[in-house]
User: Fold D-arabinono-1,4-lactone oxidase from Ascobolus immersus RN42.
Amino acid sequence: MAPFDHEAHKKWYKYTTSVITSLSWDPTTETHTPFRATTKHVHRTWARTHSSTPALYIQPETTQELELVIHLARHNHKRITVVGSGHSPSTLTCQKDWIVNLDNYSKVLHVDKERLQITVQAGIRLYQLQNELQKLGWSMKNIGSIMDQSIAGAIATGTHGSSLDHGLLSESVVGLAIMLADGRVADANQYENGDLFEAALVSLGSLGIVTEVTFQAVPAFKLAWTQQVLLLDKMLSNWEKIWTTSEYCRVWWFPYSERTIYWKADRSDALELKERPKSWYGSWFGYHAYQIALYFASWFPRLTPLVERWVFALQYGWEEGTTGSAVEKSHEALAMDCLFSQYVNEWAIPLYKGPEFITRFQAWLMHDDATARIPFPSKGIYVHAPIEVRVTNTSISRTPRPWLDPSDPQGPSLYINATLYRPYYTDFPGMVTYYKAFEYLMKEMGGRPHWAKNFISVTKEDVWGMYPRLGDWVALRNSVDPEGIFVSDWLKELILPDEQPIDEKEGGYGQWTPEEGEMDQSRLGESMGSFEFVSEGKVIRTPLSGSVESLY
Ligand SMILES: Cc1cc2nc3c(=O)[nH]c(=O)nc-3n(C[C@H](O)[C@H](O)[C@H](O)COP(=O)(O)OP(=O)(O)OC[C@H]3O[C@@H](n4cnc5c(N)ncnc54)[C@H](O)[C@@H]3O)c2cc1C
Ligand SMILES: O=C1O[C@H](CO)C(O)=C1O
Assistant:
């Protein structure tokens, strides 16, 4: 084996990360495969709702590097969680072993101009993907509220937008490449490894590392949108019309103002672009004024309805009618300002159940427990922020349906998202009761929670009752990852059967004793007891199990 050349390796380091020494030697190319890891990373969700300090944070840049990560994890008994942009506000991406991030694995690999399809490395963020599509005169047909997510992360949790003409974002995914726990890359699409494809469309990060995504684009289009102040009662009495008038539509429900904002958009390529009106809380002053007001309200919750009505009037005006319009490129029109750190608890129910849900939950928020019929007293509970009301329709999907798709397979779905801001990262009082009441009613209506979000009273038993194909999904997951490399605590707590034999051992997921011939010596080198890598000028030794130690 060639001696380790520190100087040469330093050249590989980006973000002062590192390269593994002996285990990375690749005799076919006679080079070391870089292992870009650091021991100092603190992983935080975008909203700073959860954090974890992984033993290693790894940012591979090539497929070989990814393969090395998986081999090393397997031989070191480490679990892997891949994180995209960390926009899931739950503990879904938290991991004490190894966190892998694909921000530097985000290239465009192939463009099929005839089919309008693009194949990209899976770490690409949606805004980067959109930039690439724009160069080709293409676009994504649907997005959610933001474009910061990685494509793989958005797919993995069932991210959706708001349109009855479209399903989840993953509806546009034509094919995936997934690196499985043995380092093998499997192609999965409608025709090849179909089961893996349907399972991986909502993978929750636990089937393997999605490395490539082939995405169906559409020709770029403009959207003309309007938004109007609509009384809550009127919104409910026009329920069907609200969701069927325009291709894209969404409602923000402001309980204390007893008003909603009804936003709708249609394609309008013939129109000139027209800028959106200024938003009050989009200004520096409005942003901070709202946040400070919410901060005070977190100390004196009774002030919340007042704050909410004040902000509503400044942001939208109080009178019914149109309060803004614009003509924008599709992705600019659909994206919105999500303001502050927040908890979000979002569920899907059949669309026709929406009016009953909204009527009863509005009553609960107004402290009318008799109408609400929710067994959690609402006394003293004041919440804020819009409750987002959106739609999707996966029942007419032209592409395979993800096995863990939370929306209704029988007809159109309504997504209701109870957002609770955290002014200056402070938790708002009453959240637990608010969310318990919300989830009680959601369960009564046959709802299923959005996988990425902050649901709090859902048990494993509930989840198994919600998904008829969960057994198939778990069986497939276990068959492609029998050692549980991609099993996170989140998955164990919420999904995996208690009796599943995942060996818990300090410092590793199982006790491993190398057997004769088990290790590929030519690939993994001679260092069986530990491996070393350089980080920020220090040589670090990571034992096969146990914590990372600094040598010098
Ligand atoms: C401000 C804001 C707005 C949002 N708006 C919407 C919205 O409009 N609609 C909606 O439905 N949701 C919305 N979300 C939720 C968001 O779309 C999801 O949480 C999404 O999963 C985040 O993508 P990410 O890249 O940050 O993934 P992460 O949160 O980092 O990860 C999510 C999951 O993907 C897995 N994963 C990531 N990359 C890979 C990979 N390469 N291979 C395998 N698994 C992988 C992770 O392990 C994890 O299980 C919003 C969230 C925020 C904070
Ligand atoms: O999770 C989400 O956050 C925003 C609301 O602020 C949104 O639309 C989600 O979905």
Summary: Residues 1-21, 503-530, 543-552 have pLDDT under 50 and may be disordered. Residues 284-299 form the longest helix (16 residues). The CA atoms of residues 59 and 101 lie 5 Å apart. The longest strand covers residues 222-231.
